[in-house]
Amino acid sequence: MNIWFRYGIGLTLLGASSLVMADAAADAPAASTEVAIPAPAQAEVPVAGVPLTEAENATATADMGHVVAGADMVTALGQADLSPWGMYQAADWVVKSVMILLLVASVVTWAVWLGKQLQLMVARRRGRQLLAYMVHADTFAAAERECQSGRGGGMALLAATRHELSQSARGPASDEGIKERVQARLDRVQAGLGSGMSKGTGLLATIGSVAPFVGLFGTVWGIMNAFIGIARSQTTNLSVVAPGIAEALLATAIGLVAAIPAVVIYNHFARAIGGYRALLADMSVALLVLVSRDLDRQSVNQAANTEVLLRKTG
């Protein structure tokens, strides 16, 4: 998780961290100047021989208290861990839960990308191989022999075509009727294969659309807590306010880290799955061509045989 925080989000918060450190450095000289103010007042006692009144002594003591408090605040800010991991540890439990949820969503996004990319790569390679066999085959039976060792969605198309041809051969059937039924079966198989390949991409769409709003919720909650801290400390010093706001903005940064890759990967898979559907359509067309060719040849042969019989009987 350290790697995700430091490399995925560190660049996003670099400007905010620099601003916080610059403000802390700018406030430090002012604090040291205020510390030097009470020194002359105490030094006047032995020189002038006039002791301070109770009111002046109370004022000087109050000033010293503010100066010490300011110095302690700057010291605490300088010791605060403003790295992404340190800001995560200092965040509220609600903001932490949002960050963890977004990191899990990011891991799921990359897991879906890896699995779906491998699935598509293998399916397209097998589909192109089967399509080459179907295109170069002369008959449907020859295509079946060539594709016996094949695998993938094309084999389902072959099986559906063979099933319909065997069912149609059991009784009288017209050529047009056979073609229509084969086309209907191939369309359904093709739709099922396309839907199966699209599984998992809906999760990417959900992460891409919801993650920024989840991160925004964590940011709003963190800024709310930061303003509550401002009200309690009764100071609007940027060096005091900035760490809490930076912790809140870290949730939005993680939300964007989860959402942007999810949207890009979803669009990539939408195009890739569209190409796979087109490959399935090409295989369906190749099978229909083979079936139509076989049916036409059978019709021609039957006509020739009928003519020969007529001549013999005539």
Brief digest:
The chain has helices at residues 2-9, 14-35, 38-48, 54-79, 84-90, 93-136, 140-146, 153-168, 175-198, 201-233, 238-313. With 314 residues, it is mainly alpha-helical.
Outline the structure in words.
This protein is mainly alpha-helical and 314 residues long. 87% of the residues lie in helices and 0% in strands. The chain is built from eleven helices and no strands. Helix 2 runs antiparallel to helix 11 and helix 5 crosses helix 11 (238-313). The protein is rod-shaped, with a radius of gyration of 38 Å. Residues 1-50 and 62-78 have low confidence and may be disordered.
SSE order: HHHHHHHHHHH
The averaged pLDDT comes out at 74
* Annotation, overall tally of beta strands: 0
Uncertain ranges: 1-50, 62-78
Helix content: over 70%
Largest sheet: none
Our count of helices gives 11
Give me the secondary-structure category.
Answer: mainly alpha
Radius of gyration based on Cα positions: 38 Å
Compute the separation of the termini in Å: 91 Å
Strand content: under 5%
What is the approximate shape? rod-shaped
Keywords:
314 residues; mainly alpha; 11 helices; 87% helix; 0% strand; rod-shaped
Layout of helices and strands, plus pairs?
Blueprint: H1 2-9, H2 14-35, H3 38-48, H4 54-79, H5 84-90, H6 93-136, H7 140-146, H8 153-168, H9 175-198, H10 201-233, H11 238-313
Helix pairs in contact: 2-4, 2-11, 5-11, 6-7, 6-10, 6-11, 8-9, 8-11, 9-11, 10-11
